[in-house]
């Protein structure tokens, strides 16, 4: 890491937070290569790429899976919120997740074409911009810059388990506000939304929901961006109204009916994809627009999601 990036991070996040996050990434990389305490996770077992690809070829499904991976769907989700000001009626959030922009150039081009067709008020991104969970970020950030040029409205983002904290200066130079256990207010006329975002809670355990919720009140709807939906209980406890996330890919390779063969073990099935509820908390888990390990999707098409906010009667 260059001294310039570290200096930018320390200025943006403070020396302690920056150094702790960088150290956790270094420890993760050590585990991937066997330098630290070894662990297995399919995202880090990159020979799994050949195993999965060859299995799909034997089943005559590989080419279809690749075609599916660029067939990005536009999903619509209506969300009724208490205390939503009438001037925020029909306020729309374009939700992008798990893009893995340096994984498949065709899929990235398909994503750029898809977002051009959508009208929205703000865009929110819930992490995983890079294909691997370690290594260089330049290719992913170059692709992100091309995508950002297609997004004409304000963009807010959080980091995922595939993302490096060193992306923050690059993303913010593009005009993407990264929420690292932070919050901001979104205003339209007299209406206000409380938008918060947490750092990765999956690999790096760098999330701090109470800090992200600092200043939230019951009179203003609170929206939390998290890469993983696994934090749903904590989000509900502090009083968020809505949790937007991704991470699971909806399984990516599923049985007929969209039943995932594998779904992240940190997440119960009911928060695995699409809209869900937990007590008073509403949530939506995007299956993402990209792919991980292999650039195929089976019975689980990629998506971008347009959330429309509605005043609750």
Number of domains: 1
Q: Counting H and I runs of at least 4 residues, what is the number of helices?
A: 9
Query: Which radius of gyration do the C-alpha atoms yield?
Result: 19 Å
* Count of individual beta strands: 14
Helicity range: 25-40%
**Overall pLDDT confidence:** 90
CATH architecture: 4-Layer Sandwich
Q: What is the N-to-C succession of helices and strands?
A: HHHHEEHEHEHEEEHEHEEEEEE
Q: CATH H-level name... which superfamily?
A: Metallo-dependent phosphatases
Strand content: 15-25%
Could you name the CATH topology?
A: Purple Acid Phosphatase, chain A, domain 2
What structural class should be given to the helix and strand makeup?
Answer: alpha/beta
Low-pLDDT residue spans? 35-40
Could you characterize the architecture of this molecule?
The model is unreliable at 35-40 (pLDDT under 50). This protein is 28% helix and 23% strand. With 313 residues, the chain is an alpha/beta fold. It is globular and about 45 Å long. It has one domain: Purple Acid Phosphatase, chain A, domain 2 (4-Layer Sandwich), CATH 3.60.21.10. Strand 10 and strand 11 (259-260) form a beta hairpin. It starts with a helix and ends with a strand. One of its GO terms (molecular function) is UDP-2,3-diacylglucosamine hydrolase activity. One of its GO terms (biological process) is lipid A biosynthetic process.
